[in-house]
Design brief:
heterodimer; A: mainly alpha; Arc Repressor Mutant, subunit A; 7 helices; B: six-stranded mixed sheet; globular
């Protein structure tokens, strides 16, 4: 779990770890199903060591991490503010797949179309999984919005695979 | 491959459909073998002109093959007489088309009850059934509307209700989301998904990956032939979390 995500979850108010987990679960829906429940405590401990978070045991409880109330320090608040304005967007790694097709065709080691077909099968299975999850979310749910993003990305990738297939089919036919 | 017709709802062996002749010969469907099991949702994907619509028309008995065997509901239909074929088609097949093909001058309920009336179902019973089907597709409150007063997605849902009017063994859909925006597409996806869950046998030809992804099995078609076949039910190789960038 990214440290800034946990910090930002604390920005609303000082909270127990399990409250953060509930907020995460609501935001992620089925996408967060496979998340390790202990991960958030590992991250909180790291954040505390880094001075971004302080903790206090809640009244009457022993020194157990799941009983502590966590809060942002001023440095933690600054980090959250920086993170929110930061521009970050994952870069899709298209070049590797593209070069795989180029190399397969050039060396005659494998049929680029067969590689495209295999990739398409996997993407369609992912699309099916994501879509089934999306269809079972209530309308306008926050978690549904994340699933919609997954579905749209997979559709874009599948459209690119169509273009790959067209081009490599034409090139193969030209060589025959 | 085993003898078709047994448990399969739809079956084809060495199915061909050709148009034109000599240099102008087009093999729209070029030697297709296919079995669709009861309760299965099958999607056939391919670019326009690959022969998938022609295939669907052959499977539903709307068009005759040039050669090959064709089975529907346990009956060989490629040599069936015109009247017997028309009756079987009416009883066993529901069609959904890209352009909806609703009757503009009839209300939603009248469109849905039409196939039942044509099959000789008494009017009151046909109306009752139409009402139930419109409810099932979420349009109970639009029963008295003309198609022109409905959105594209609502029209397609009426068309699906109509396809179900005679409780068909199989629903054949030709680009059912082809004319829809993404919001309406989602409505139709939900509807097909619920039909699938209810055990309706479905064959969908499409180039829309979203609707294809609701299927159990997916066939890729090029130049009249099947080039790839895959089960989608096995699940992908990762979790939804990995797809969203949560892990790894």
């Amino acid at each position: 779990m990214q440290q800034e995500v946990v910090l930002a979850l604390l920005a609303k108010e000082p909270s127990h770890g399990y409250q953060l987990r509930t907020r995460l679960r609501q935001a992620l829906g089925p996408v967060g199903d496979a998340m390790n429940a202990g991960q958030i405590y590992v991250t909180l401990t790291r954040l505390e060591k880094a001075g971004l978070v302080i903790s206090e045991p809640s009244a009457g409880a022993a020194d157990r991490p799941d009983r502590k109330v966590y809060a942002l320090t001023p440095a933690g608040q600054q980090r959250v503010a920086d993170w929110l304005t930061e521009v970050s967007w994952p870069r899709p790694d298209l070049a590797e797949f593209h070069l795989k097709l180029v190399a397969a065709a050039a060396a005659g080691l494998a049929d680029p179309i067969a590689i495209v077909d295999t990739q398409r099968r996997e993407l369609l299975r992912r699309l099916r999984d994501a879509q089934r999850a999306a269809l079972s979310e209530p309308a306008r749910s926050v978690a549904g919005l994340l699933l919609e993003g997954i579905v749209l990305r997979l559709q874009a990738d599948l459209r690119w695979l169509e273009a790959c297939e067209r081009t490599w089919t034409t090139r193969r036919d030209d060589h025959e | 491959m085993s003898e078709a017709g047994g448990t399969a709802v739809v079956g084809a062996r060495a199915l061909r459909k050709e148009y034109g002749r000599d240099a102008g010969l087009v093999r729209a469907v070029d030697g297709v073998d296919l079995d669709v099991a009861a309760g299965e949702t099958l999607a056939v994907m391919g670019p326009s002109g690959c022969g998938k619509s022609t295939l669907l028309h052959l499977l539903g008995g709307l068009d005759r093959p040039t050669s090959g065997e064709l089975w529907l509901a346990g009956q060989r239909i490629d040599r069936l007489g015109e009247r017997a074929l028309a009756r079987l088609r009416r009883e066993a097949v529901g069609f959904v088309f890209q352009a909806f093909h609703l009757m503009d001058e009839l209300t939603a309920a009248e469109n849905v009850e039409l196939p039942a009336l044509l099959a000789g179902v008494p009017p009151r019973k046909a109306r009752r059934r139409a009402t139930g089907l419109l409810e099932q597709v979420g349009l109970a409150d639009r029963a008295g509307f003309l198609p022109s007063a409905l959105s594209g997605g609502q029209r397609q849902r009426v068309a699906v209700a109509r396809a179900l009017a005679n409780e068909p063994l199989v629903v054949l859909a030709d680009e059912p989301t082809g004319n829809l925006d993404s919001e309406s597409t989602l409505d139709v996806l939900r509807l097909f998904d619920s039909l699938h869950t209810a055990g309706q046998t479905l064959v969908i030809v499409t180039h829309d990956a979203r609707i294809a992804a609701t299927a159990d099995r997916l066939i890729s078609m090029r130049d009249g032939a099947f080039i790839d076949q895959t089960r989608l039910t096995g699940g992908s190789t990762g979790t939804l979390g990995a797809l969203a960038g949560l892990e790894g």
